[in-house]
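Below is how a single chain appears once it has passed through the pipeline. First comes the sequence as given, then the structure the pipeline wrote out for it. We keep one example in the README because the format questions we get most often are answered faster by looking than by reading.
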Amino acid sequence: MKPLIGRDTKLCMSLSGRPSNFGTRFHNRLYEIFGLDFVYKAFTTRDLDAAIGGIRALGIRGCAISMPFKEDVIPLLDEIEASAAAIDSVNTIVNDDGRLTGYNTDFIAVRHLVEAAGISPSTPFLLRGSGGMAKAVIAALRHLGFEAGTVVARNEAAGRGLAEAYGYDWQPALGPSGAPLLINVTPLGMEGPDAEALAFPEAMIGDAEIAFDVVALPPETPFLRAAASAGKRLITGAEVIALQAVEQFVLYTGVRPDAEQIAEAAAFARENANR
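Resulting structure:
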């Protein structure tokens, strides 16, 4: 049984431009399953420096970092773990007695899902986006040996820089041709003003083989719905968010859930994300 919240309860949190309930429900459900004296709460902030200072000063055990803070948080930390340093993006902070270390568990989740999907590294991809999550996806694909791909991003400095850093191509906008593997790493389809936006044209989706959307909420974006209707293979943001959250949970608590416990917590989080 999980202890009552008290003075010894350890707090974990998230910082996001658009906070959701998924991580909160997921982590707190696992705390209940294991009877851990932890509690998890989602936040946003207009003062990132002060928020990170609060994590250090108040002894907050861990913090998940989401858009748009994954890169800006780096100079505020004491140490960057190798995977986060390699892609210059942090999605997890661990506080060890006031020393803050940045990690990236998105990379781990993406690599696992692409491997599990059995996608050949010879499959060309088209990735739309250039932010912190795009870096995690591109780095995972390069780590897996993907040979040919194109980054689509309006920001030339960010898009071209990301593509060239990993040996891929860049273009400023979608062209007439797509690729067998389409990847959305933008807010298109995310809950909010972009909820109804389609990340790729329907014709391009029809010509593809695999649709990968990192947007987790809603779990079924317009892009994924169109791809499913066309009979395409899917990798979903819901899968990514669950796997990366598991790695965060392990870093915060030292406890690794089994597959059944992960599935239970993920199902609970999805069912209760809007409550």
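Residues 23 and 245 are 7 Å apart (CA to CA).

See the next section for the split statistics.
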